[in-house]
Design brief:
- This is ABC-2 type transport system ATP-binding protein.
- There is one protein chain.
- The chain is α/β, with parallel strands linked by helices.
- It is built from 12 helices and 15 strands.
- Bound molecules: adenosine-5'-triphosphate.
């Protein structure tokens, strides 16, 4: 047989080189007709197998980026590659390998959950009608909707509608899932369910790219993250490294907080804040044993002395100099 391959040309085209990122953009820019610069020179790298959180407050350019990645709108300048292919030129070859949930799923309320999926599957020319029932049943099972499959979609809760949208994205095996604010509008239980589902999908090797304005959500499910603000990329990388980049906080618990605060400042602790019996600040670049000894020598009664690990939120504040606006 030699060099002959049984693969469809389309599949061969979208096979990325080993180690090649699933999404890579270079200087990607979108200026809307009204003049609004929504995405400004974005260099984004999404490694294969990652759960990648695309984080930013409302209006920071996340949806615009996702639309460009999916070939729905043209960039003003710069390039985007998805699964090793240039977008939007290769949209037709790339999209069959991508499951997307963007701005809420389009569902027919008068059809049952199962019939909505049958409709989606029938609209896919590559889907074999003989195996349709099996595909639909397994997608329903995947998202935990088997018991509710016969109910009309209009009777579904928002969380169930999101899960049905995910089931539609999962009818075919996908190499990449793109989820735009998948937990938006859900109650805490619904959010937990979607997070658990994302983790499960990622555990079989699918790369998941999800946008969110909720820092906590990204910290809980993502291996990697990128932070956007006003159309620009502030930082990206493994979540553990992003948090490690920010220094932890020194927390001293004591019945003598005023005296402790004074000594800590003398010892080079910055941004000292006192709340009740806790004194917190940014640890200095020196042996903390000496700082502790200085407190004790000055007669401060120390009940607790620890460095709290930095969170992703600390990293964000350190990078932008402002708090993360979680409103909206
Ligand atoms: N079709 C459009 N025409 C003009 N401006 C737009 C258009 N779509 C978005 N914008 C503007 O571009 C900027 C980025 O919007 P975008 O929707 O990409 O942000 P986002 O981070 O996804 O926010 P959200 O979570 O609110 O959707 C905003 O200032 C928005 O008002």
């Amino acid at each position: 047989m030699g060099e002959v391959s049984a693969e469809e040309p389309e599949q061969r085209e979208t096979r990325a080189e080993p180690g090649e990122p699933v999404i890579a953009t270079h200087a990607l820019t979108k200026r809307y007709r009204g003049g609004q610069l929504a995405v400004d020179g974005l260099d984004l790298t999404v490694p294969a197998g990652s759960v990648f959180g695309f984080l930013g407050p409302n209006g920071s350019g996340k949806t615009t980026t996702i639309r460009m990645l999916m070939g729905l709108i043209e960039p003003t300048s710069g390039t985007a590659r998805v699964l090793g292919q240039p977008m939007p030129r290769a949209t037709r070859a790339v999209l069959p390998h991508v499951g997307a949930l963007i701005e809420g799923p389009a569902l027919y309320g008068f059809l049952s959950g199962r019939d909505n999926l049958i409709r989606y599957d029938s609209a896919d020319p590559a889907a074999d009608p003989r195996t349709r029932r099996v595909r639909v049943a397994s997608a329903l099972d995947r998202v935990g909707l088997t018991a509710a499959a016969g109910k009309k979609a209009k009777a579904y809760s928002l969380g169930m509608k999101q899960r049905l949208g995910l089931a539609a994205a999962l009818l075919q095996p996908r190499r990449l899932l793109v989820l735009d604010e998948p937990t938006n509008g859900l109650d805490p239980q619904g959010m937990r369910e979607i997070r658990a589902l994302v983790r499960e999908l990622a555990s079989d090797g699918t790369t998941v790219f999800l946008s969110s304005h909720l820092l906590d959500e990204i910290a809980q499910v993502c291996t990697h993250a990128a932070v956007m603000a006003q159309g620009r990329l502030i930082t990206q990388g493994p979540v553990a490294e992003l948090s490690a980049g920010a220094r932890g906080r020194l927390v001293v618990t004591t019945p003598d907080p005023a005296e402790a605060a004074r000594i800590l400042k003398e010892q080079g602790v910055a941004d000292v804040v006192v709340t009740d019996d806790r004194v917190m600040g940014e640890p200095p670049d020196r042996d903390l044993a000496e700082v502790n000894a200085a407190l004790v020598t000055a007669g401060v009664r120390v009940r607790g002395f620890m460095v709290e690990r930095a969170s992703l939120e600390d990293a964000f504040v350190a990078l932008t100099g402002e708090g993360f606006d979680v409103a909206g």
